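Key result, reporting period 2: structure in, sequence out.
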């Protein structure tokens, strides 16, 4: 079963953007955009009409904090 849970653009706005958190696009692969909120430590996967999220601790890639700092 996937660790990702269904989310929405409205949730990204309510949780992050309306509180002036910095949300950055960290990766674009095929039909997916991966965005990371520096304040919340959440990774958002936005696919053709579907937004999903996962806590940074469960993200299985390279540390996004390191990746975001390199940009």
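The corresponding designed sequence is given below.
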């Amino acid at each position: 079963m996937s660790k990702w849970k269904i989310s929405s653009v409205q949730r990204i706005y309510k949780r992050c953007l309306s509180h002036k958190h910095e949300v950055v696009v960290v990766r674009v692969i095929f039909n997916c955009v991966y965005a990371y909120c520096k304040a919340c430590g959440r990774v958002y996967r936005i696919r053709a009409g579907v937004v999903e999220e996962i806590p940074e601790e469960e993200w299985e890639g390279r540390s996004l904090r390191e990746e975001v700092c390199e940009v």
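The helical segments are 9-15, 64-70. The beta strands are 5-7, 23-29, 32-37, 42-47, 50-55. This case is discussed further under Risks and Mitigation.
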